[in-house]
Amino acid sequence: MKILIVALLLLLGACSAPSVPDETYFRLPASTNNAAPNARPLFAQPLVVDVFSADGLYAEQALIYTTDAEAGTLRAYHYQLWADPPSRMLQRRLVDQLRDAKVAPLVTDRLPSGAKALRVSGLIRRFERVKQAQGFRVVVNLQMRLDAAGQPLLEQNYVEEIAVPLTTLDASVQAFGAAVDAIFKRFQADLAAIKVDSHAG
């Protein structure tokens, strides 16, 4: 009888569902865009950075990857997630960087709808790690736009790709941060080149 009970317990143990892995959440590393702020703001008006737009998988919180070099097929990790959705994560990072650079007297993520302000918007076109023969590369493609009174002053597509020889997700997350910062640095340079009535005098 005891042998039968032990056998049944072993059988039940073998049939039990496997344990579910813990979810891991990732944040981008601290920004490397630490250039000296502008002596005076580039624009006289406040500047609002909207939540970034994203479609499909890019609107989700999971990290995205592909084993296809052409990125024709995308996959999402089930247990490896961004701490915040990329649309929010990139908005907050850009607000911090434009604020630190003193691009405008006020840089914020929201103002009353009737307030007179410049407005920055972004679209996440690509944000994934791509499997290579050795390691990975991260690809970030952001479409950035600056509007004044509903009229576009700047609309540009920015792409950064960074090779990651290591296979760890931590290494790829570091590369994502570097790619985003490189794009935001180029965007800031393009903002500085704009000549509009909203420039600070």
From TrEMBL:
Provenance organism: Pseudolysobacter antarcticus
Keyword Repressor: no
InterPro entries the record matches: ABC_trans_aux
ABC-type transport auxiliary lipoprotein component domain mapped to chain residues: 61-183
Name under which the protein is recorded: ABC-type transport auxiliary lipoprotein component domain-containing protein
Record flagged with keyword Signal: yes
Keywords tagged on the record: Signal
Pfam family, any one: ABC_trans_aux
Signal peptide: 1-19
